[in-house]
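Field: COMPLEX_INPUT
Field: COMPONENT_COUNT = three
Field: RESIDUE_TOTAL = 808
Field: MODE = joint
Values follow.
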Amino acid sequence: MEEHYQHLYEALSQVDGYIYPNEIDLHWGLMIVLYPYITGLVAGAFILASLERVFNIKALKPTYGLALLTALAFLFVATLPLVSHLQHPLRSYEIFMTPNPTSAMAIFGFVYLWYLMVVLLLEIWFDYRRDFVIWSKTSTGFKKLFYKVITLGINETDEKSAKLDDKLGYYITVLGIPSAFLLHGYVGFIFGSIKANPWWSTVLMPVIFLFSAMVSGIALVMVVYMVVCWVRKVKIDMLCLDTIAKYLFYILIIDFTLESLDQIHRLYEAEESFDIIKVLVGGKLNITLIYIQVILGTLIPLSVIGFFQIYKPAEKIRKFAYFFIGIIVLIGVFFMRWNVVIGGQLFSKSLSGFTSFNAVYSGMEGYLMAAVWLILPLFILTFLLWLMPPWKKVTSHE
Amino acid sequence: MGTKRKLENRRKFFQTSATLIGGTLMYSLIKPFEAIAETKEKDTEDDKANLPLWGMGVDLESCIGCGKCVEACKIENDVPKEPFYFRTWVEQYTVKNDGEVKIESPNGGIGGLKQSVPDEDIFKSFMVPKLCNHCTKAPCVQACPVGATFISPDGVVLVDETYCIGCSYCIQACPYGARYMNPITKVADKCTFCYHRITKGLQPACVEVCPTDARIFGNLKDKKSDLVKFLQKNPTQVLKPHLNTHSRVFYNGLSSEVK
Amino acid sequence: MPKLIFRLFLSFVLFVSVFIFIQQHLKPDSFGKYGHYRANAIDDNKMRTSYFKSENKCKECHQDIYDLKDNDVHYGVRCESCHSPKINASVECKEMPPKVEGTLKFCGQCHAMNLGRLKKGVPQLDFKEHKQGQNCIECHNPHAPWELKEN
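Field: COMPLEX_OUTPUT
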């Protein structure tokens, strides 16, 4: 407690201008930056998978299973930053018991459950079902037990069941696209609907969150695909990689357009909150917004991939470029979440002053905790890839 | 023969289990609506008319920024004494001759607000007490994911301390900065109009101690109350009217510099 | 209906039923009575302990001081404004009398010069000039400030 007060006294001495006395402490910290980031990765990875399944972009086939498993690995971890953040985590079941119909946050439990169970798990199950049946016959130990259980006793592998699996999987994916939009759109709405905070309160917020989520998810699958191929020592399918980069480019354009539109609109209307926001962007958010989010995370990737659309350099250069681009896009989108969540709390609702963000390393809201929540899904993904390797699949959908 | 009976049994099994499950489902679906159907008719109409509707008036022409209200509130409501948690506070506005507006509230105004700009630079200066506005259309109540904060039937926005999960969404949603996260109870906290006092016929602590009667508390439905007379006599405003929160704290003498 | 779809649908229905069943049990009893909240929370908020007793309680023992105050300029200042309680309102204040010191700092809380203090009725003094170094109560009776003490 004393340490906590120590931080607050420090923050008090660093107050610039006037803030309401209760605003010294930032209530939403690193964990709340992480949650939209992780759910964004899930939604984005799923959309990439659905590009192949629903829109029949065959070039993306090598990454279909990988994208789904990546989405699943991150979805398992998605609630954990929230639980870290809550002051009373043991009461979190209340969101399921008495969700407030007027609160955007209350949708969380149900959207999460729906997406996890009905969309993601089912889709993976329909795609892998026949493989589970086949694998259960040829494997031993834990894997054999797992495959037997997961088939739920349905052991047909004939043509008719294959067609049914395909059809159902297709419908689930179609259902999954608006579900993914809802999963991440509502997070944007959580911020966009707060009229008290002018940095958050914009109609575009859910859409911006959604498109930057798609950007981050696609970049993540791109990087994961390259790493997995490197670990497995197999050749990367360059057509697939080029196609992923192409879609990353398209969605990044839309994302950049939306974010720019938001800022241009603010600049033009210059209403009450503009003066303090101008100081915010030019000052405390200068590095994280202009340099990292915009230049590093958006403009550089756009120029490089855009250039590749006109002139394709050698494979080796492209591979290196894609990997680098994937990483900086992921960093850029993380900082986009940072700029929204932390940025929105740095200035006072009195529009007359700033407080400061004091980084902590340990504790429930610290950097270490954030690192754990980001690395854990990668371990889960490794486990899932060992359990259900997409490249060992004998069957595949139409 | 054998297969036919097997199919028969299987069908019976599915039928019975489907009925059982369907029955449970039906019952569970009806139960919540039962509760609504019962109570709604009995209490609401009658009681609502008899209940007061609490509100507060703040006379900015009288406030001297002594900070006694802030101190009293902290004592009465067990608010942590550190300068980061306030249910109410007083702001000092100093408009300088060059047009710059200086706003300050050191420790919420406890100990009395001191003049911080030399006389010759001051164009005008005044004090503004702030507190939870108990909005009739409270954005904090709208935002709470579990229903831990609510508007009581007599118009006071309260927090259910045993139910709040501590997500801080209500604190983000309040446009007036009236809420804080209590470090001891770890739930959202704010001015309650001293609900435990007003329901016993007493005044809120801040009103009790104000030496200049700058805070006027009362029942908006009572035409003879001091509050209603205050509203009739003075041109009053609410804070941030463009946000349409239907705040029930009315300020007399609110100058445009007030944030 | 194919076995597959039937089984999945059945598990879904089962899950939803179990969920609703648990929900009804874990939801607090008084929830939803007046709105989307636990109605008993209203009573919880009423049950807090009070510290401030209000002037009528002070008058029960200190009627004389009250009358003195009522006839001088501090008539509008309630007792607890200066004498903030040190104990719970259900305890007799004899246990810990809310004594205060009439120092410059204490009285200056209301009476120090500040251009922001608009109210004409509150005298404002520059304490560097007015009797610096002394305490207010050496000359003024706090309950009847214009009854100056003879020096």
